[in-house]
From TrEMBL, chains A, B, C, D:
GO biological process: one example: phospholipid biosynthetic process
The species this protein was found in: Vallicoccus soli
UniProt xrefs under SUPFAM superfamilies: Glyceraldehyde-3-phosphate dehydrogenase-like, C-terminal domain, NAD(P)-binding Rossmann-fold domains
InterPro entries with a match to the protein in the record: Myo-inos-1-P_Synthase, Myo-inos-1-P_Synthase_GAPDH, NAD(P)-bd_dom_sf
Name of the protein in its database record: Inositol-3-phosphate synthase
Residues covered by the Myo-inositol-1-phosphate synthase GAPDH-like domain: 231-336
Family in the record: Belongs to the myo-inositol 1-phosphate synthase family.
Signal peptide interval: none
Top-rank taxon: Bacteria
Length: 406, 406, 406, 406
């Protein structure tokens, strides 16, 4: 795995988790598909190897200490392994993500310079090729590399920009140093050029524009996204199907989140927040089959919690005889603890898809995402149990009807 | 529908709801299968007609006023229709349900008298035959009668009693006036003898003993139960599959309920409460695939809420790296508003099953129950979405594989 | 009482409540000082008479129906009395309160016209004099008139505006039609000129600028404010003193509110919201004695609840050994039901203060307000129990040491 | 301090906390009276020294590890000091506390033997005298010894037993080996005989019977109790005064607690639970001035939380116009973290009272207790802010009017 945002809480937790499994002191709690057996080509957790970029150049032992996810004994067990993982210089862009910065940047102009974005792309491609040829624990080559975006949320680019419409326009824009191309898209492009599947666990726009889809198919590269479905939205896609099933009409759904980690800090910028709220907001109407007019989603940066997060939901329901009821859900969760195992599963499945010859958007991975990236025109299934069914069907048979019957 | 406990909050709400639909002033909110169309033989809500027994002889307008579920305008619209529905004398037994009584009782000894239970059974059978032949709105015959048990929860009978093991032993015990036979079983027996499907929406033991199953099959009568899955347990069977799906290990699940209606009053008797907790307690382990040692369920009688109910759950989860998380769910619900529409659906489906020639336990109706009554040896599926899938498959095709893949 | 915003939910609830008390069918639940007896000069609830202004000219029976606070029986009992209460044309200003409007406006230019604000003031003064001389139930004169501002929240004016610094500057600005003077201040000025105590139950800036304080003292008029302390902030001023008492350090306090009434609609305008958050935000630090850096307050307009309101708080505490704890409070309240009785008490006490010869800010009424208006330089006491003690002391003795020992 | 139950979570946390303060690495968070200065005779936290009894003979380092209250760094800092604190053999009685046992018992028959209880009392007196003469850090004498009961909750003794009515009857019963005398009373008696103030932080019956009060006064020994007011009940005595102040009528109050530590285990015995519920149940009516008929308190043993505890409250309120509202409070707290600092304060104040010449029940310490032990016939004040005021008044002046005006 080559991770964009390797020094973040999710990535460092994932790296530590794999290391603990290798040491035999971890459990498979939280790993949804630990029980899958006999699936040809599916990588083992213990065989995953990590590299990647981060604007902060600290090694992962230091990063993990800052994030405070691991307990004391776990830190002791994995710190020497984590010390050996040092992020490569990254290609950030303050225009797209204001609250989070760092000085571990690639030594070419990150955007808009006279030399265009091409040198940056070349740099990232070189990173990936070097990792593929010598990233193994023994310094040898890797079987495959999957790029996973775990970086802080960027603001929306202008989705109507013609540069995003076709592969040709996009490549020309890269050459011209078009300053409307966000970093997530640059990484996606580098992954595609290198033949590495690209998984976008963030709300940023990565491979989910026609230009990148075209390029992904052309290069035989699967892409998957976006925005990991971990806490509140995961619960929403569990509860809403039940309310629909019982014909309890959702009159309003109020969701608020408080979190204090680097993610929360990034979202303290209204532009980044808009991206996040965009992916969180869409799940309800599709599941319920009607628009919920009072669907409100809030995210607030609140430091006392650090990586721990709290999501509070209130749902107003109307039942038989028009009588009103309320459900309140309070989820005291750990952001990285929920996200890290999903990232590991995604890497395994994206690799499996590539082995199976698939390219372009992997809609069977909708189970993992708030806003599943599907082929143009396809219906998006949000209900968690339907997504799980479709994913397991694909794992077993190689194909799946993603969208459930309406 | 012939309802045991016709004067209760659930039954009076169901009757009022059908009346409002007939008047065109109701909506189908809360009716899960209002959208089913073109299913041959499925009764329309508006065609349902109500009779039944209650220890309290007040007409349903008076009962509805006591329960306070309907709002002022709804009461005005339906009160004259409800006044015309007067419960028949009922066959209660203080030995089995202590907190709730009344004086509208059948004029034969309810249990243990020298004359045995046979006269009581004959009385109930006569009630049902009279209702079937002349219960229509115009005084004419009904197409079919379904008996639905909505009475207060009874204490457990002795399930090892040989009287419950075979049809012959049971009928002999009825003749002998065996005092270990609870009222719910007497009603189930009367329904079976009359060829009426029996639906047990309560935790009491009704048709779920071998003797009654044998009789039901012999008389070609479908039976379904038990204990309507309305609020907290419904949510449990929605959330637990999601925790299983995400491999979030459930370390403990604490559930408490406060309610102040007649149901709550009945459960203030520890013996009745034990029956209720029995049906509530079993759902988790089957869904999760491992035993949850700290699964605590409390029900407390608390009068300020009346028919409104509050269910508070706390769930302790263990995720990746052994990290702990918590989910709290607070469901401010209306007991009768959730239950009444399920009762209407059950009557429609039990009737449909009889038209389709089925008899004995209808496992495809598990969707409606906390403790689905299945044929001996069959696995019980508790996950709501799997139950819904199986039910819809049966509706469409006439058969269903109820238990999902393990 | 002459109420600014007479057609709102709080005012119509107050009027209905007094009417029910007069009819003998109300209770004193919610009236904090119903038990005070033998206090010379304190008006009886039943003797209160209501008039006032509103941008919506509907009579109060119609208004009460829209707000939906009263139940059916209460509406029936008071509707004829409420029909007789019709708001006078009001002096609103869209510049200061954008979301809520109406066409029941005074027939002079409300602001900024060539004629200045003086005609508006004269109009309001005439309203008050007419009410005082003939507002009694029998058309006779009233003993006294108290003006209470219950209008929707206005945006902040520019508090550094020299027009607000002295009485002379203010009166000149009124004459000049200065467009920076918000409606609440115009009403306060009219009240002062007429010798009527002015109570500001809203977060708007009314009499809480030096110019108005000077005028109030000069005309012998007591003023009180501001922003009624009803739900979440009331709870905050109860809990925070306890945390201080137990030395539980407040590391963060996250508060969110959802409400769907006209108040909520007004606060959907960010400028009005800022005023509201201003008065809600200040209470913690003063009570605790240190700044709470993560004190976040949110108010969201959410329609399913109407006048019912929900305030959810999460508090992060640090105790012995630096260990963290959390308290969550969910208050399902009725905005108007909490506010209306406080408004009645305020009118009684403001009148009592005037009888006792007081003028200027009444700091002993801090018990009722989120942001007590105190004389310049005085310490503000926020702890509810200290405020109650000071108020009762003043009621009994005519004076009070408001601020508790630090 | 000589602690009954020295190996428990509260005691070991208190010992660790004092050690951290001595090391300069602790803070005064959670210590309510850390800010008191210049009070003659008030001991400093750092000067407290600990001894005491426990049925489990493990040293406190081992105990602290089991309880899991301290974090890793704190454990490292204090473990060597804690290793040096080893509980003395204790005088338990399985008849009074069934769920918690141990084998570190005094070498005389604990109850009902032919030799009577006198040898046990003599043994405890000898423990205290030895501790007083040589318990100092340097092996020298202590200025004073306070006995604090932190043991697991015992079942109620028979309060009508004549043995508890007078000093003479009690001493005769001790001599006779009367088996109705609970261990807490035996410890209280030993403390009194030795001239050591006795503080009862548990719900058990200790010095709160006439016989012990008489003995305490005769020996010039202050006693205080009972049942530390830490979490849910503390909040109750903060919120109830506010509801009373605002005239919000409490129609019902439902409280449930889940906890998994040794305390919770002891309370899993219905007899011990009854004692606990007794002290928790009484606080409301006194504060509100009317009986709350639906006041329900539940405590459930629930292991996933260990020493962490959750208290969930629902309060039903009736306000103006009879309208209903609800408040829910969820307190995620740490039992020992809340209790330990109160224990330290109690020891300091009990000692101060003895220095000031007081004996018998110290009603000014009601601030710390769920069920304040007051002289016979005195009104019990439960409101936290009134208790705090009275305590501070006593600290400053040496006397206090405990009960506020009604």
């Amino acid at each position: 795995m080559a991770v964009v945002g390797l020094g973040g809480a999710v990535a460092s937790t994932a790296v530590a988790g794999v290391e603990l499994l290798r040491l035999g002191s971890g459990t498979t709690d939280g790993l949804p598909f630990a029980g899958l057996e006999g699936v040809a080509g599916l990588a083992r957790y213990e065989d995953l190897v990590f590299g990647g970029w981060d604007l902060c150049g600290d090694n992962l032992a230091k990063a993990a200490e800052v994030h405070g996810v691991l307990d004391y004994r776990q830190m002791q067990a994995v710190s020497s392994a984590l010390e050996g993982v040092v992020p490569w210089p990254a290609a950030g862009d303050e225009e797209f993500c204001r609250r989070v910065g760092g000085d571990n940047v690639v030594a070419v102009a990150p955007s808009g310079g006279s030399t265009g974005l091409r040198p940056v792309v070349d740099h990232l491609v070189a990173d990936l090729e070097r990792f593929r040829s010598s990233g193994g624990r023994d310094g040898g080559p890797l079987d495959a590399v999957v790029v996973v975006n775990l970086a802080s949320t960027e603001r929306y680019p202008d989705l109507a920009d013609p540069a995003f419409a076709t592969a040709a326009a996009f490549e020309a824009a890269v050459d011209a140093g078009h300053d409307g191309i966000p970093p997530a898209m640059v990484y996606a492009y580098a992954a595609v050029l290198t033949g590495c599947p690209f998984v976008n666990f963030t709300p940023s726009v990565g491979a989910d524009v026609p230009a990148l889809e075209e390029l992904a198919r052309r290069h035989g590269v699967p892409v998957a996204g976006k925005d990991g479905k971990t806490g509140q939205t995961m619960m929403k896609t569990v509860l809403a199907p039940a309310f629909r099933s019982r014909a309890l009409r959702v009159e309003g759904w109020y969701s608020t989140n408080i979190l204090g980690n680097r993610d929360g800090q990034a979202l303290d910028d209204p532009a980044s927040l808009a991206s996040k709220l965009g992916t969180k907001g869409g799940v309800l109407d599709g599941i319920l089959g009607y628009p919920v007019e009072d669907h409100v989603v809030r995210i607030d940066y609140y430091r006392p919690r650090g990586d721990a997060k709290e999501a509070w939901d209130n749902i107003d329901l109307v039942g038989f005889l028009g009588q009103r009821m309320q459900v309140k859900v309070d989820f005291l969760c750990r952001d990285s603890v929920l996200a890290a195992p999903l990232v590991l599963e995604l890497a395994r499945f994206a690799d499996l898809a590539q082995q199976r010859g698939e390219s372009g958007p992997l809609e069977q991975l909708g189970y993992f995402f708030k806003s599943p990236h599907v082929p143009a025109g396809a219906r998006v299934e949000h209900a968690l149990h339907e997504q799980e069914r479709a994913l397991l069907e694909w794992v077993r048979t190689g194909s799946a009807s993603v969208a459930g019957a309406e």
